[in-house]
Specification:
Blueprint: H1 4-9, H2 22-41, H3 52-76, H4 85-95, E1 107-114, E2 122-124, E3 129-131, E4 137-139, E5 144-146, E6 152-159, E7 176-177, E8 184-189, H5 202-215, H6 222-232, E9 236-242, E10 254-261, H7 269-281, E11 290-294, E12 297-310, H8 317-335, H9 345-354, E13 359-364, E14 374-389
Parallel strand pairs: 10-11, 12-14
Antiparallel strand pairs: 1-6, 1-8, 2-5, 3-4, 3-7, 4-6, 9-10, 12-13
């Protein structure tokens, strides 16, 4: 799936104005004026650089060229390679009926506890808020109550602000009541908060538009399952779909789906359960397909490198060291951002040199082919500055 948009980006560029430049427009304006003048008057005319008419023509050329750019843009917005923002929204809606996903709030399961059982039910009003840090809040979305004679109740709360900001609170962190409830002794989340997603990006929407025709199929092609997974949640950044033909260990009639979440994270069980239910009910799923969903296998790798800076760059050595550290971190994010992406030290070297290093000596990782159902996971990282070297 990682190469889906690369197919679009690699298409030849097009121009609705034949790649006209400002200089070409200016030359056309001047030559057209001179030819027209000679045709009408029978006399030749040459416009010097300071000629007022030449200045006027050059000024008008600027306006005409700007209009040509608008024409070119208007044409390109009809193609997935170029469309962005509201233009992409319109293209998605008219071509495939897709609408950009709005931000979704994170959810978390909270355990409400009493000190002792009560003879009557303990009400928990709708909108009761909890927090872990005083900046992000989770609230009940309906009226709840702990039945008489019982001491605990588990319920799902929703983040009050949509987006990924509510994700990642570890079990036990959400333990403070903003709106106190009588008789409640303690609250605590029993799972990590998850499910929050920001507004769908242009790249994510373009990906779904490209895959949308596959979603119409009832034969169960791999792209159809990829499309449905991306449709389910914007938090899913990559999907690998395999069948018996890809892996003999997969039983006949079974579709093995591996999903990778934002930041290269493994999916929570709640995400797997929700996606499983969603795909089971999907109209394009063949009745004979058994769907099994999990996170990708992990392919551990380590980073160990020593880099050097040219003496000619000694005045920038401190900033280069900072840039190299950032480049290594960006490489580690890139390496784990896609399922099946080979572990490639050449990419690391390129990033370190682009950050300003003269050269890099890499002890690890070595180039490693990663299975189509696995994702590289960083085990350890060691970056050493080796000092200045002659050019």
């Amino acid at each position: 799936m990682a190469e889906t948009l690369d197919v679009i980006k690699d298409l030849p560029d097009i121009s609705f104005i034949d790649d006209a430049t400002l200089e070409q427009v200016q030359e056309l304006m001047i030559t057209t004026y001179q030819e027209s003048y000679r045709s009408i008057t029978g006399q030749a005319v040459s416009l010097a650089r300071g000629d007022p008419i030449r200045v006027i023509l050059l000024a008008v050329s600027q306006v005409i060229y700007q209009h040509l750019q608008l024409v070119d843009k208007a044409g390109k917005m009809n193609f997935l390679k170029y469309a962005y923002g509201d233009y992409l929204d319109q293209l998605a809606a008219t071509r495939t009926g897709l609408v950009r996903k709005a931000a979704e709030p994170a959810v978390v399961t909270i355990l409400w506890s009493l000190e002792a059982a009560r003879a009557s039910a303990t009400p928990i009003p709708e909108g009761t808020r909890l927090t872990a840090d005083g900046s992000v809040f989770f609230a009940t979305t309906e009226y709840l109550e702990i039945p008489a004679g019982e001491t605990e109740l588990s319920a799902i709360l929703q983040c009050t602000v949509p987006g990924a900001v509510g994700n990642g609170y570890a079990p036990g962190e959400v333990d403070t009541m903003v709106d106190p409830v009588p008789f409640i002794a303690s609250v605590s989340n029993v799972d990590a908060s998850s499910g929050g997603s920001d507004t769908e990006t242009d790249e994510e929407l373009a990906q779904r538009v490209f895959l949308a025709p596959s979603g119409f199929s009832v034969a169960g092609p791999a792209d159809a399952y990829v499309y449905r997974c991306l449709e389910y949640s914007s938090q899913i950044v990559d999907v690998a779909v395999s069948g018996p033909g890809d892996d003999p260990d997969i039983p006949a009639g079974t579709v093995d789906i591996r999903i990778l979440m934002e930041g290269g994270e493994q999916p929570e069980q709640s995400m797997i359960d929700g996606l499983t239910e969603y795909l089971t009910d999907a109209p394009a799923r063949p009745l004979t397909d058994t769907v099994q969903i999990s996170g990708p296998d992990e392919e551990p790798y380590s980073v160990s490198l020593t880099y050097y800076i040219a003496k000619v760059d000694r005045s920038s050595a401190a900033s280069i060291q900072t840039a190299v550290a950032a480049a290594v971190e960006q490489y580690e994010v890139w390496q784990s951002a896609r399922i099946g992406r080979d572990i490639n030290p050449d990419e690391l070297i390129a990033r370190v040199k682009a950050a300003g290093a003269k050269r890099a000596v890499i002890a690890s990782p070595a180039f490693t082919t990663v299975p189509r159902t696995a994702v590289p996971v960083l085990a350890s990282s060691s970056v050493t500055y080796g000092g200045l070297e002659d050019d």
